[in-house]
Amino acid sequence: MPRYKLVVEYDGTAFAGWQRQAADRSVQQALEEAIARFTGGPVRVHCAGRTDAGVHATHQVVHLDLDTPWRTDTVRDAANAHLRPEPVAVISAAAVSPDFDARHSAIKRHYRYRILNRRSPPALTRGFVWHVPWALDAGLMHEAAQLMLGRHDFSAFRAAECQANSPVRTLDRLDVTREGEEIVVVTAARSFLHHQVRGMVGTLMLAGGGRLTPQGVRDVLDSRDRTRCGPLAPSGGLTLTGVDYPADVG
Predict the structure, then answer these.
(1) Binding site annotation covers 111?
(2) Which CATH architecture has domain 3-104?
(3) 172 is catalytic
(4) Catalytic residue among 11, 24, 52, 175
(5) What digits encode the pLDDT tens for the residues 44-99?
(6) Which residues contact 102 (CB under 8 A, 6 or more apart)?
(7) What is the residue extent of each domain of the chain?
(8) CATH class for domain 108-243?
Protein backbone atom coordinates (compact mmCIF):
# COMPACT_ATOMS: atom_id res chain seq x y z
CA MET A 1 0.00 0.00 0.00
CA PRO A 2 1.83 3.16 -1.18
CA ARG A 3 2.29 6.01 1.30
CA TYR A 4 2.31 9.69 0.38
CA LYS A 5 3.52 12.80 2.17
CA LEU A 6 1.59 16.01 1.48
CA VAL A 7 2.42 19.58 2.42
CA VAL A 8 -0.83 21.46 3.02
CA GLU A 9 -1.76 25.07 3.69
CA TYR A 10 -5.08 26.35 4.98
CA ASP A 11 -7.00 29.28 6.36
CA GLY A 12 -8.30 27.91 9.64
CA THR A 13 -10.92 30.62 10.18
CA ALA A 14 -13.90 28.59 9.02
CA PHE A 15 -12.82 25.30 10.59
CA ALA A 16 -13.25 23.77 14.04
CA GLY A 17 -9.57 22.84 13.94
CA TRP A 18 -7.58 20.13 12.19
CA GLN A 19 -9.18 17.06 13.78
CA ARG A 20 -12.50 15.59 12.68
CA GLN A 21 -15.43 16.72 14.83
CA ALA A 22 -18.80 15.14 15.46
CA ALA A 23 -20.70 18.13 14.07
CA ASP A 24 -18.39 20.93 12.94
CA ARG A 25 -16.30 21.11 9.76
CA SER A 26 -12.57 20.34 10.15
CA VAL A 27 -9.53 20.58 7.90
CA GLN A 28 -8.97 16.82 8.17
CA GLN A 29 -12.52 16.13 7.02
CA ALA A 30 -12.21 18.48 4.04
CA LEU A 31 -8.94 16.89 2.92
CA GLU A 32 -10.07 13.29 3.42
CA GLU A 33 -13.30 13.88 1.51
CA ALA A 34 -11.44 15.52 -1.39
CA ILE A 35 -8.97 12.65 -1.73
CA ALA A 36 -11.72 10.04 -1.41
CA ARG A 37 -13.56 11.60 -4.35
CA PHE A 38 -10.76 10.86 -6.81
CA THR A 39 -9.47 7.60 -5.32
CA GLY A 40 -12.94 6.09 -5.02
CA GLY A 41 -12.59 4.90 -1.44
CA PRO A 42 -12.27 6.16 2.12
CA VAL A 43 -8.88 7.49 3.24
CA ARG A 44 -7.38 8.47 6.58
CA VAL A 45 -5.01 11.42 6.74
CA HIS A 46 -2.52 11.84 9.62
CA CYS A 47 -0.95 15.23 10.37
CA ALA A 48 2.26 16.46 11.98
CA GLY A 49 0.44 18.72 14.43
CA ARG A 50 -3.24 19.12 15.21
CA THR A 51 -4.14 22.81 15.06
CA ASP A 52 -6.95 24.41 17.06
CA ALA A 53 -10.05 26.09 15.68
CA GLY A 54 -9.05 29.25 13.83
CA VAL A 55 -5.33 28.40 13.59
CA HIS A 56 -3.78 28.54 10.12
CA ALA A 57 -1.00 26.63 8.37
CA THR A 58 1.38 27.42 5.54
CA HIS A 59 3.28 24.13 5.94
CA GLN A 60 1.24 21.39 7.58
CA VAL A 61 2.61 17.93 6.79
CA VAL A 62 0.38 14.87 6.48
CA HIS A 63 0.73 11.27 5.38
CA LEU A 64 -1.81 8.89 3.92
CA ASP A 65 -1.92 5.41 2.42
CA LEU A 66 -3.71 4.68 -0.86
CA ASP A 67 -4.84 1.31 -2.21
CA THR A 68 -3.13 1.78 -5.56
CA PRO A 69 -0.14 3.85 -6.77
CA TRP A 70 -0.82 7.33 -8.14
CA ARG A 71 1.52 9.86 -9.73
CA THR A 72 2.41 12.44 -7.12
CA ASP A 73 1.40 15.37 -9.31
CA THR A 74 -1.98 13.68 -9.84
CA VAL A 75 -2.47 13.31 -6.09
CA ARG A 76 -1.70 17.01 -5.62
CA ASP A 77 -3.78 18.31 -8.51
CA ALA A 78 -6.76 16.01 -8.04
CA ALA A 79 -6.93 16.79 -4.33
CA ASN A 80 -6.89 20.52 -5.07
CA ALA A 81 -9.58 20.15 -7.71
CA HIS A 82 -11.89 18.45 -5.23
CA LEU A 83 -11.01 20.83 -2.38
CA ARG A 84 -12.56 23.81 -4.16
CA PRO A 85 -13.94 26.08 -2.75
CA GLU A 86 -12.51 25.09 0.66
CA PRO A 87 -9.67 27.37 1.90
CA VAL A 88 -7.28 24.39 1.81
CA ALA A 89 -4.56 23.61 -0.74
CA VAL A 90 -2.08 20.78 -1.24
CA ILE A 91 1.26 22.44 -2.03
CA SER A 92 3.21 19.27 -2.79
CA ALA A 93 2.94 15.50 -2.78
CA ALA A 94 5.73 12.93 -2.55
CA ALA A 95 5.96 9.16 -2.31
CA VAL A 96 7.59 8.09 0.96
CA SER A 97 8.56 4.85 2.65
CA PRO A 98 5.91 2.98 4.67
CA ASP A 99 7.68 3.84 7.94
CA PHE A 100 7.36 7.62 7.43
CA ASP A 101 4.95 9.10 9.95
CA ALA A 102 4.04 12.78 9.67
CA ARG A 103 3.72 13.12 13.43
CA HIS A 104 6.15 10.67 14.96
CA SER A 105 8.98 11.17 12.46
CA ALA A 106 9.02 14.95 13.00
CA ILE A 107 11.95 16.45 14.92
CA LYS A 108 10.85 20.09 15.05
CA ARG A 109 7.75 22.21 14.52
CA HIS A 110 7.73 25.94 13.72
CA TYR A 111 5.01 28.49 14.48
CA ARG A 112 4.55 32.20 13.86
CA TYR A 113 2.26 34.53 15.82
CA ARG A 114 1.27 37.98 14.54
CA ILE A 115 0.17 40.88 16.73
CA LEU A 116 -1.18 44.01 15.04
CA ASN A 117 0.01 46.77 17.36
CA ARG A 118 -1.77 49.96 16.36
CA ARG A 119 -4.77 51.95 17.49
CA SER A 120 -6.96 51.14 14.47
CA PRO A 121 -8.37 47.61 14.08
CA PRO A 122 -7.48 45.45 11.08
CA ALA A 123 -9.57 45.55 7.93
CA LEU A 124 -7.56 43.27 5.62
CA THR A 125 -5.86 40.93 8.12
CA ARG A 126 -8.78 40.29 10.43
CA GLY A 127 -8.68 36.65 11.49
CA PHE A 128 -4.90 36.48 10.97
CA VAL A 129 -3.65 38.84 13.71
CA TRP A 130 -4.30 39.67 17.35
CA HIS A 131 -5.18 43.36 17.54
CA VAL A 132 -3.54 44.97 20.58
CA PRO A 133 -4.22 48.75 20.45
CA TRP A 134 -1.93 49.85 23.30
CA ALA A 135 1.82 50.32 22.87
CA LEU A 136 4.00 47.23 23.17
CA ASP A 137 7.79 47.10 23.52
CA ALA A 138 9.00 44.27 21.29
CA GLY A 139 12.48 44.52 22.81
CA LEU A 140 11.17 43.76 26.30
CA MET A 141 9.07 40.92 24.91
CA HIS A 142 12.13 39.40 23.23
CA GLU A 143 14.19 39.78 26.41
CA ALA A 144 11.51 37.94 28.36
CA ALA A 145 11.21 35.28 25.66
CA GLN A 146 14.88 34.37 25.94
CA LEU A 147 14.33 33.45 29.60
CA MET A 148 11.98 30.66 28.51
CA LEU A 149 14.38 28.89 26.16
CA GLY A 150 15.54 25.40 27.01
CA ARG A 151 13.99 22.44 28.79
CA HIS A 152 11.31 23.35 31.34
CA ASP A 153 8.01 22.32 32.84
CA PHE A 154 5.56 24.47 30.84
CA SER A 155 2.50 23.70 32.98
CA ALA A 156 1.83 27.44 33.39
CA PHE A 157 1.03 27.65 29.66
CA ARG A 158 -0.74 24.31 29.30
CA ALA A 159 -4.46 23.95 28.55
CA ALA A 160 -6.50 22.13 31.17
CA GLU A 161 -7.61 19.63 28.50
CA CYS A 162 -4.06 18.94 27.26
CA GLN A 163 -3.54 15.19 26.84
CA ALA A 164 0.27 15.17 26.79
CA ASN A 165 1.85 12.68 29.18
CA SER A 166 4.36 15.24 30.46
CA PRO A 167 4.38 19.06 30.67
CA VAL A 168 8.15 19.13 30.08
CA ARG A 169 9.21 20.49 26.71
CA THR A 170 12.42 21.88 25.18
CA LEU A 171 11.91 25.29 23.60
CA ASP A 172 14.54 25.82 20.89
CA ARG A 173 13.50 29.24 19.64
CA LEU A 174 11.29 32.12 20.80
CA ASP A 175 12.09 35.36 18.99
CA VAL A 176 10.08 38.58 19.07
CA THR A 177 10.58 41.30 16.46
CA ARG A 178 8.70 44.39 15.31
CA GLU A 179 7.89 44.60 11.61
CA GLY A 180 6.21 47.96 11.10
CA GLU A 181 2.84 47.87 12.84
CA GLU A 182 3.14 44.16 13.59
CA ILE A 183 4.96 42.32 16.35
CA VAL A 184 5.93 38.85 15.16
CA VAL A 185 6.70 35.96 17.50
CA VAL A 186 8.55 33.01 15.94
CA THR A 187 9.00 29.81 17.91
CA ALA A 188 10.27 26.27 17.36
CA ALA A 189 10.43 23.05 19.37
CA ARG A 190 10.17 19.33 18.81
CA SER A 191 6.65 19.50 20.19
CA PHE A 192 4.37 21.89 22.07
CA LEU A 193 1.70 21.45 24.70
CA HIS A 194 -1.90 22.28 23.89
CA HIS A 195 -2.23 26.11 23.96
CA GLN A 196 1.45 26.52 24.93
CA VAL A 197 2.32 28.99 22.17
CA ARG A 198 -0.82 31.08 22.67
CA GLY A 199 -0.24 31.13 26.43
CA MET A 200 3.36 32.23 26.02
CA VAL A 201 2.39 34.97 23.57
CA GLY A 202 -0.31 36.28 25.92
CA THR A 203 2.20 36.43 28.76
CA LEU A 204 4.84 38.12 26.60
CA MET A 205 2.23 40.71 25.65
CA LEU A 206 1.98 41.66 29.34
CA ALA A 207 5.75 42.21 29.37
CA GLY A 208 5.54 44.34 26.25
CA GLY A 209 2.88 46.50 27.87
CA GLY A 210 4.87 46.96 31.07
CA ARG A 211 2.60 44.83 33.24
CA LEU A 212 5.28 42.17 33.78
CA THR A 213 9.06 42.45 33.83
CA PRO A 214 11.08 39.91 31.84
CA GLN A 215 11.92 38.22 35.15
CA GLY A 216 8.21 38.26 35.95
CA VAL A 217 7.59 36.22 32.81
CA ARG A 218 10.22 33.72 33.94
CA ASP A 219 8.53 33.62 37.36
CA VAL A 220 5.27 32.61 35.65
CA LEU A 221 7.09 29.78 33.90
CA ASP A 222 8.75 28.63 37.12
CA SER A 223 5.46 28.73 39.04
CA ARG A 224 3.94 25.96 36.88
CA ASP A 225 0.63 27.63 37.76
CA ARG A 226 -1.82 28.11 34.87
CA THR A 227 -3.67 30.84 36.79
CA ARG A 228 -0.57 33.08 36.59
CA CYS A 229 -0.37 32.87 32.80
CA GLY A 230 -1.34 35.92 30.77
CA PRO A 231 -4.44 35.97 28.55
CA LEU A 232 -4.67 33.22 25.95
CA ALA A 233 -3.76 34.88 22.65
CA PRO A 234 -6.53 34.46 20.05
CA SER A 235 -6.14 31.50 17.73
CA GLY A 236 -6.33 33.53 14.52
CA GLY A 237 -2.88 35.07 15.00
CA LEU A 238 -1.19 31.66 15.02
CA THR A 239 0.17 29.84 11.96
CA LEU A 240 2.02 26.53 11.66
CA THR A 241 4.86 27.43 9.29
CA GLY A 242 7.06 24.35 9.09
CA VAL A 243 7.82 20.81 10.19
CA ASP A 244 11.36 19.36 10.13
CA TYR A 245 12.36 15.74 9.59
CA PRO A 246 15.70 13.96 9.63
CA ALA A 247 17.59 14.19 6.33
CA ASP A 248 17.02 10.50 5.61
CA VAL A 249 13.27 10.59 6.42
CA GLY A 250 10.43 12.00 4.38
Answers:
(1) yes
(2) 2-Layer Sandwich (3.30)
(3) no
(4) 52
(5) 999 999 999 999 999 999 999 999 999 999 999 999 999 999 999 999 999 999 99
(6) 5, 46, 47, 48, 61, 62, 63, 243
(7) 3-104, 108-243
(8) alpha beta
